[in-house]
Specification:
The complex is a heterodimer of chains A (571) and B (192).
Chain A lengths: L18 E6 L2 E6 L1 E3 L5 E3 L2 H7 L23 E7 L18 E3 L11 E3 L10 E3 L3 H14 L17 H9 L17 E2 L4 E3 L9 H9 L5 E4 L6 E4 L11 H6 L5 E3 L12 E6 L8 E7 L2 E7 L12 H4 L14 E3 L2 E3 L1 H14 L5 E5 L5 H14 L3 E3 L19 H7 L10 H10 L4 E5 L10 H6 L2 E6 L4 H5 L2 E4 L8 E4 L4 E5 L12 H11 L9 H11 L8 H4 L4 E2 L3
Parallel strand pairs in A: 1-8, 19-20, 19-21, 21-22, 22-23
Antiparallel strand pairs in A: 1-2, 3-4, 5-6, 5-7, 5-8, 9-10, 10-13, 11-12, 14-15, 15-16, 17-18, 17-23, 24-25, 25-26
Chain B lengths: L11 H4 L2 H19 L4 H5 L19 E3 L14 H5 L5 E4 L19 E5 L8 H5 L5 E3 L14 E2 L1 H8 L7 H13 L7
Antiparallel strand pairs in B: 1-4, 2-3, 3-5
Classes of the chains: A alpha+beta (571), B alpha+beta (192).
Chain lengths: 571, 192
């Protein structure tokens, strides 16, 4: 879930802003006068942001730091006070001890009743006092929550949101154990098919309109709206128009309750079983930061992980749903030598001996820009040792205006910076094909690509004396290979990708490799030792740090310093 | 302080072994004769010995957990997986239905487990599954002697658990919710 904290300071150094002093729960703090709004433009700091800076989280449903403020859920009501002003002299009224007298917010017609203001939309002013922990504030929250729960069904046992539901969380904090509501709840449509990837349960909706604002203002597809009146309010699409843009699943993350749920994740696994692993999406060169939800070596979902330098809190549906191939039953599991199952030691020793014996220039290597930067660096070292030409395969698609990049390889820049491919990926491939045709190239090593789709057809592969293919899923190249070395998906190993903008981002291991498959870096290390190219570190950290010392583009970087958000390098 | 105890050597009588054996057989024979004459202590007190006569368990005894059906014969479990989560020895394994799974055998609670397994070799009869269940779908019942010839046999699947569990009449909240919703379908826009 993108339950990110309210606006953190922008990553780039902001110009100094004027500070004002306010009191939160009686404690005086200094907060900036303006803070970035959902579009990053400076706007007067709100009470909610000020409370966050003071370390007091104000509960909220409709407010989201990356969406326009709507102020309709009323959950963030906070009691406050402002310094009193003498109407005649326009001077602050002072207490006996010289401190300004504070006028607590009250209802105009009954001054004994405190009046809250919605913290998400009320700007602060100098000298203001906020009381987010006062009994009056707590009472307001309890009342709002009780109203929200009036028609909310007791669906938690069958609701996919249970466990990461804001309504559940705030009910624990501010709710009552029993209901005072004796009338029948209003029943609304359940399991409404909203689009190809979204199911809507209208009963569970608390009408915060986060989804409506997201689709309109972020995705630019004004598809959702609210129809009917009062208790019969429901979220709906325009008649006859499915909710099917490429960003619909973000509304599932945004939905604070279980109204909008993912068809893909529907009834699949309870969220509390999921192990969360920080990773990076591999579907295009944007490199959206993701959290992989897995249980016992099965990946159940991807979710976006907030990173303002890359994807904000969003990701596209296409990337999010592109995980099933990792668990496919036809994954390459066995090490094969001429079609027969063998051991890693036998295969790697044999391949290393054949490559070491091959004359310089008779070997070519085709790598993949879907591999980690460390692996590409090791492949480059191997290629340098063998005097082999290398390249990676380009993969183009259509870009959109939000996140999807035209380059569908996650690590094209990694392949470029390590020297695997030239400035443009794939331009050396015809040369390799010509070399095989002319008989100068007699051995080919392929990583993670089906070269028969990229100009080196089965007829050319048949001419080779040695074809080594390392891949994750079977294809025409692995079928023709003399040696098949099963590799790992990104979720099964650690490494880094360099995205389209040159951000080096690391990803961690979520699940175990299938069968005998091993991370490519492991057997590349053995191949390098076997061909006499020297020893390289065995861990992902060591490999990255060694690469940073050797490759000028990564000079000065360290695995540990990459952090969860990554570091930019010039590309 | 150490006290050294002298180990006395066995006497000839003790070393012959047979007298002690006969001593034991005498006790056996005494009990045998008593049984033949109908002096069985268990029969005098109750109906006889286990296993011919099963032990009568008291109310509230915590035996093996089984799934139950409601009074309409529907599976009560909605696959919320709280029991799987709470189970201390991880004996419970539930396969949720998934998006394309079989629909539940009842109208309004949309969810039902595709598979529900309890490994009775792991189960410690603690009762946390029964306590945590929001649907009153699993109960510790009175079976205490579970046997099988293989480990696989001791993993009870959904069919077996439901069959062993029987019926537990409850409040049927989903059914009532559905009835309430159907009533509202004709309200507030009554067409006829």
């Amino acid at each position: 879930m993108s339950n990110a904290a309210p606006n953190a300071p922008a990553p780039t150094a902001p110009p100094p802003v004027e500070k004002i002093r306010i009191k939160v729960d009686g404690r005086e703090i200094e907060v900036p006068k303006t803070m970035p709004d959902w579009q990053g433009r400076p706007q007067p700091t709100t009470m909610l942001q000020a409370c966050h800076l003071a370390g007091n989280e104000v509960p909220h449903y409709c407010y989201h730091e990356k969406l326009p403020v709507a102020g309709n859920c009323r959950m963030c009501l906070v009691e406050f006070g402002t310094p009193m002003m003498d109407p005649a002299t326009r001077k602050p009224v002072l207490e006996a001890d010289g401190s300004p007298r504070i006028a607590r917010s009250v209802l105009p017609y009954e001054p004994q009743t405190p009046r809250g203001a919605i913290a998400c939309a009320t700007p602060i002013s100098p000298g203001m006092e906020l009381y987010p922990s006062s009994p009056a504030t707590r009472q307001m929250r309890e009342a709002v929550l009780e109203s929200l729960l009036v028609n909310h069904p007791l669906d938690c046992p069958i609701c996919d949101q249970a466990g990461e539901c804001k309504l559940q969380e705030y009910s624990v904090e501010h709710g009552s154990g029993t209901s005072r509501f004796v009338e029948a709840k209003v029943h609304k449509p359940k399991a409404v098919d909203l689009g190809p990837r979204i199911v809507l349960d209208d009963e569970r909706c608390i009408l915060c309109t986060r989804c409506v604002r997201f689709t309109k203002d972020i995705a630019g597809d004004d598809a959702l709206g609210i129809v009917n009146r009062g208790s019969y309010n429901t979220i709906a699409t325009f008649p006859g128009r499915p909710f099917d843009n490429n960003y619909t699943l973000n509304t599932v993350d945004l939905c604070p309750v279980g109204a909008l749920t993912s068809k893909d994740f529907r009834f699949k696994m309870r969220v509390w079983f999921l192990k969360e692993t920080r990773s990076v999406c591999t579907s295009c060169a944007t490199g959206c930061n993701i959290t992989i939800g897995s249980r016992e070596d099965t990946i159940h979902r991807y979710e976006p992980r907030g990173n303002d330098a890359v994807n904000g809190p969003w990701m596209c549906d296409q990337g999010r749903l592109n995980y099933r191939w990792i668990g496919r039953s036809d994954r390459l599991r066995d090490v094969l030598a001429n079609g027969a199952k063998t051991t890693w030691k036998a295969a790697v020793d044999a391949v290393a001996a054949r490559l070491a014996a091959a004359p310089s220039g008779s070997v070519a290597i085709v790598a993949s820009a879907r591999q980690t930067t460390e692996e590409l660096h090791l492949i480059k070292k191997l290629a340098d040792r063998l005097g082999a030409p290398t390249d990676s395969v380009p993969r183009e698609g259509e870009a959109d205006r939000l996140l999807v990049n035209a380059d569908r390889n996650p690590n094209t820049n990694g392949a470029r910076l390590t020297g695997i491919s030239f400035t443009e990926a794939g331009i050396r491939l015809p040369g390799i094909a010509d070399g095989i045709r002319a008989g100068t190239i007699r051995s080919l090593v392929v990583f993670g690509e089906d070269v028969t789709q990229h100009g080196i057809g089965a007829d050319l592969l048949a001419r080779l004396e040695l074809l080594v293919a390392s891949d994750i899923l079977p294809n025409a190249t692995t079928a023709a290979a003399h040696y098949v070395l099963p590799g790992c998906a990104h979720a099964e190993k650690r490494g880094t990708f360099v995205n389209a903008k040159g951000r080096v981002q690391r990803f961690l291991k979520a699940v175990e490799p299938k069968g005998d498959a091993r991370p490519e870096a492991e057997f590349l290390r053995e191949l390098l030792a076997g061909t006499g190219a020297g020893e390289v570190p065995a861990t992902a950290e060591g490999l990255f740090n060694a690469m940073a010392r050797e490759v000028p583009a990564f000079a000065g970087l360290e695995w540990a310093a990459l952090g969860d958000a990554g570091v930019n390098v010039p590309v | 302080m150490t006290k050294v105890v002298d180990r006395k050597p066995l006497t000839f009588y003790e070393r012959t072994y047979l007298p002690t054996l006969l001593e034991g057989l005498k006790v056996t024979a005494r009990h045998f004769m008593r049984s033949v004459k109908g002096g069985n202590a268990a029969l005098q007190l109750g109906d006889g010995y286990y296993p011919e006569v099963p032990w009568q368990v008291a109310e509230g005894y915590r035996g093996a957990p089984y799934l139950v059906r409601d009074q309409d014969g529907n599976t009560k479990c909605v696959s919320c997986q709280l029991c799987e989560f709470v189970c201390p020895p991880k004996a419970i394994r539930i396969t949720p239905p998934g998006a394309d799974g079989v629909p539940a055998d009842r109208p309004n609670a949309e969810k039902m487990p595709r598979e529900f397994e309890i490994n009775m070799l792991r189960c410690i009869f603690c009762g946390l599954c029964q306590e945590v269940c929001p649907e009153e779908a699993i109960f510790l019942q009175k079976h205490y002697s579970l046997t099988g010839l293989t480990r696989e046999e001791m993993i009870y699947d959904k069919e077996r658990l439901l069959q062993l569990g029987g019926v537990h009449a409850g409040i049927q909240k989903w059914k009532h919710k559905l009835e309430e919703a159907r009533e509202q379908d004709t309200f507030p826009v009554k067409t006829d």
